[in-house]
Design brief:
By secondary structure, the protein is an alpha+beta fold. Helices cover 45% and strands 10% of the residues.
Length: 577
């Protein structure tokens, strides 16, 4: 072999996936989701040739289904640790079938005491089990021993720490949002012919149009070879905010946006590399609200790439979806330019790089397009934290904080939620002591929350306000007040409110809603149904008992198309209050 270790292989024209194990049995190529291959050469390992070949074959078998080089590189690093261990033995094995249980016990004892070591043990075990000679016998039994989970090294933020991180991100992102918004208005006015030709605004608008189409303001090369903005005096300076930053966010500003998204929604850092721009879905909340559909990639669910959809509504300044609206506004020109340079490209997290001729070093991430770069790397996260004197990437801790505070799984299973996020959280451990004391009171409170909380009446009251489920007597005295006044509860929670009034005109819609929620039992697992629908179902069943089963069943014959449409939106969680 002419080269040891690992190397990147660019996909040729008409690329197709090659077999992972090359002829000869010593080089494994892992192809990522973008079609790039990375070769791992086992001839460089300090072990006998048959061991190299066997490890390569086991590595190749384990690698089938991998879609990123980062995973392969992590396995490779740990296989090298194992090979170094074997080479240091007094009598190194000639092949994997010469491994002994004593050797594997020694290997385990060296690594079981640390998080890094336990991760190495788990990875090497997965690879070795791919060798059919190690599936039975004393070595297989040693490999089958339980390896404790790594102890989480990151704790969620305390309130003061979280506030400091979020405030730093808000200040930086808001500055970008205001700057880009103001210059977008100037550009739109110029494009609509609203400026007097030759005026200062007209000249700036023409430069902004050039910037939007090319990714940079007009440039001039000075006699000394320095490249600078041609009209820097007109623009007010040579700096980023006065030139291309007028319409494009910097990578630091994009990182600040990612911090806010993780704090709000608990998203992983790796998600931002290929996060599609959210699309607006029909919303029943009126013109003042919009619901976005966000495609969330779950790297570890199933094999390869797997997506779920999150519906996020912008119904006002404090609603979760307002951040999505602002993110789309800040990245609008970057996304438009990316689509022009490569049609079909529409990643949300697009920023302007400081250098136009960027090298594509991280092949798991989207390739740069002209002056544009996509996603947020770990290095960007570290640099952002350093610039704001925060002492480390905020993403893991922010995600842990949000996931634990939400109290339900976000992009992971119930088991992962409890074992990885909730149980190691020192805040949860402290709070659990108080929870035992308050258990009886909590049970009584929960019993009250799963019954219909309002009043059943014979006729509507014209002074009451109609909602999607009930009539509201007074939203200003809601148990769930909104910061800006009024009620912050969703329409399903109206059934728990003492201000709710239900009359016969509501019966068809509520009976149909009851029927639809019952139908969800067959498509959701018990945990998901319990989290999302159990309380609503109990309230409707309590209401059915008050109205009477006969009247409830008869109401189903009076269900209208409007009732069906509203119930569909309620069932999809798409109806904003």
């Amino acid at each position: 072999m002419s080269r040891r270790g690992r190397k990147a292989v660019l996909p040729p024209a008409g690329h197709r996936t090659e077999p992972p194990l090359a002829p000869g049995g010593f080089v494994v190529t892992v192809t990522n989701k973008a079609g790039y291959g990375k070769a791992f050469d086992f001839t460089g390992l300090p072990v006998a040739g048959p061991v190299q070949c066997s490890l390569a074959a086991a590595f190749a078998a384990q690698s089938r289904g991998w879609t990123c080089h980062k995973t392969a590189a992590s396995y490779w690093a740990r296989i090298r640790v194992f090979a170094a261990f074997l080479s240091g033995l007094e009598d190194p094995p000639e092949d994997l079938d010469a491994l002994t249980a004593a050797t594997m016990r020694d290997w385990r004892e060296r690594h079981i005491g640390t998080n890094t070591g336990r991760g190495t043990l788990t990875t090497v075990r997965l690879v070795l089990r791919r060798d059919p000679r190690l599936t039975t016998g004393p070595v297989a039994e040693e490999l089958a021993r339980r390896i404790p989970r790594p102890t989480p090294s990151k704790q969620p933020y305390g309130q003061a720490e979280r506030d400091r991180v979020v405030l730093a991100a808000q200040r930086q992102f808001r500055a970008a949002w205001l700057r880009i918004g103001e210059n977008t208005r100037l550009l739109n006015t110029w494009r609509e012919g609203g400026d007097t030709e030759g005026s200062h605004e007209w000249k700036v608008g023409r430069i902004l149009d050039h910037l939007a189409r090319t990714g940079d303001v007009p440039l001039t090369v000075s006699p000394s070879g320095r490249v600078q903005a041609t009209y820097y005096t007109l623009l007010g300076g040579r700096g980023v905010e006065m030139t291309w930053g007028r319409l494009f966010p910097t990578r630091g500003e994009l990182t600040a946006l990612a911090v806010l998204l993780t704090d709000r929604f608990g998203w992983n850092l790796s998600l931002y590399d290929r996060l599609p721009a959210p699309t607006a879905a029909p919303s029943a909340g009126g013109k003042a609200s919009v619901t976005y559909q966000v495609q969330i990639e779950k790297h570890r669910a199933g094999g390869g790439r797997w997506f779920s959809t999150e519906n996020i509504t912008d119904s006002g300044a404090d609603s979760p979806g307002r951040l999505i609206t602002q993110a789309l506004e800040v990245t609008a020109h970057a996304r438009a330019l990316a689509n022009y340079l490569k049609p079909g490209t529409d990643f949300l997290m697009a920023a302007h790089a400081y250098q136009r001729n960027q090298q594509h070093r991280h092949l798991d991430r989207p390739a740069p397009l002209g002056p544009l770069a996509f996603g947020v790397s770990e290095r960007m996260a570290q640099r952002w934290a350093h610039n704001h004197k925060l002492g480390g990437s905020p993403f893991q801790r922010a995600r842990r904080t949000t996931v634990t505070d939400q109290g339900r799984p976000l992009q992971h299973t119930r088991g992962t939620h409890e074992s990885v996020y909730v149980l190691p959280d020192r805040r949860v451990q402290r709070a659990s002591r108080e929870a035992f004391v308050a258990g009886a009171l909590e049970a009584m409170e929960q019993a009250r929350t799963v019954v219909f909380g309002g009043k059943v009446t014979d006729r509507p009251n014209p002074d009451h306000q109609q909602t999607a489920t009930v009539d509201c007597q007074d939203e200003e005295t809601s148990p769930w007040p909104a910061p800006e006044g009024g009620c912050a509860a969703d329409f399903l929670l109206c059934l728990a409110c003492p201000n709710a009034h239900v009359h016969p005109g509501h019966h068809p819609r509520l009976a149909h809603l009851h029927q639809q929620i019952l139908s969800l039992r067959s498509v959701l697992d018990d945990d998901a149904f319990g989290d999302l629908w159990s309380a609503h179902l109990h309230r409707l069943q309590d209401l059915r008992g008050r109205i009477g089963p006969a009247a409830w069943s008869a109401a189903l014959a009076r269900v209208t198309d409007t009732d069906r449409n509203i119930v569909k939106l309620l069932a999809n969680k798409d109806l904003a209050p």
